[in-house]
Amino acid sequence: MNSIAVFTSGGDAPGMNACVRSVVRNALHLGLDVYGIKYGYNGMIEGDIHKMKSYSVSNIIQRGGTILKSARSRTFMTLEGRKKAFDQLQKRNIDGLVAIGGDGTFTGANLFYEEYGIPIIGIPGTIDNDLFGSDYTIGFDTAVNTALNAIDSIRDTANSHDRVFFIEVMGRNSGYIAIQCGIGGGAEMVMVPETSTTIDDVIQNLKEGRGKDKTSSIIVVAEGKVHSNAHEIANKVLSELPELDIRVSTLGHVQRGGTPTAFDRILASKLGMAAIEGLISGKKAVMVGIIDNQIQYTNFKIAITKSKPIDENMLRMVKILSI
Ligand code: F6P
């Protein structure tokens, strides 16, 4: 292998830049030529591909977002799109790829590998922490800390006005962000797509709280299909308990940006190094992750099809700690 390219794809995540930096510098250290592809698979198709030097990744380790930009590509999901992308790589003699993103990114990468045989290593970069094959994904820790800062602020006003707050956090179909925020933010309850908490459960919890002289409550709601959104839940609860002063706050994309935490920068640096070392040692079509603090490589097929179970103990903890 002489020449590799790196790209970021799907939703951006804080720490992606630290990861790009690590990939570029580890590859240069081993004597490889390195290209950066802008706008993910779209840039690969369009040939938005640029040689990178050590200084190309200077002063980015602390920055959120991704200097390589990101996109979710429909065209790459077509045979024609992938053919164009492969031609662009061949023109530049690129013989290995590092894809930083989530399950959509790795689904595309796996197809590409199966059709063209080009070695690809995936690095899990998404705030959702929803990938099988890694205990943590890049950006998750920062997103949780950002959400917690917001929850702490909301707690002040919830407490001052004796209010109930439903706070919606991101996570797509995964409750990881919500659970961590529930524990770290001292929430009364957490609602995640993985479990079937009902409106009656919420009402019961709030009634019990009032019975124990709780004057305010925080309920963290994970976005996701199962529970609908925090506004709908709040409206249903209000119709049963009209005496409560209820507010809803949807934290939204604020969770996706900002300075990456130390944890995310270090995780990103480690995974970037392991991706390059994996490529050099002949690994293909795998995602590199960290499990029990050890680097592990998981076949794309497994990483994209197996779901990462939530830790039931964490949910139990929310309940116990909020008595
Ligand atoms: O996958 C990251 C994520 O932020 C999810 O938590 C969320 O559901 C989704 O992306 C939002 O996507 P978009 O930025 O396209 O609105």
Q: Which helices and strands, and how do they pair?
A:
Layout lengths: L2 E6 L7 H14 L3 E5 L2 H7 L2 E3 L27 H13 L4 E6 L1 H14 L3 E5 L15 H22 L2 E6 L6 H9 L4 E3 L7 H13 L5 E6 L7 H11 L5 E5 L11 H19 L5 E6 L2 E6 H6 L6 H10 L2
Parallel strand pairs: 1-2, 1-4, 4-5, 5-10, 6-8, 6-9, 7-8
Antiparallel strand pairs: 2-3, 10-11
Helix pairs in contact: 1-9, 2-3, 5-6, 6-11, 7-8
The structure holds 6-O-phosphono-beta-D-fructofuranose.
What this model shows, in words?
This protein has 323 residues and is α/β, with parallel strands linked by helices. The protein has helices at residues 16-29, 40-46, 79-91, 103-116, 140-161, 176-184, 199-211, 230-240, 262-280, 300-305, 312-321, and strands spanning 3-8, 33-37, 49-51, 96-101, 120-124, 164-169, 189-191, 217-222, 246-250, 286-291, 294-299. Strands 3-2-1-4-5-10-11 form a seven-stranded mixed beta sheet, sandwiched between helices. Strands 7-8-6-9 form a four-stranded parallel beta sheet, sandwiched between helices. Helix 1 links the parallel strand 1 (3-8) and strand 2 (33-37). Helix 1 packs parallel to helix 9, helix 2 (40-46) packs across helix 3 (79-91) and helix 5 crosses helix 6 (176-184). The protein starts with a strand and ends with a helix.
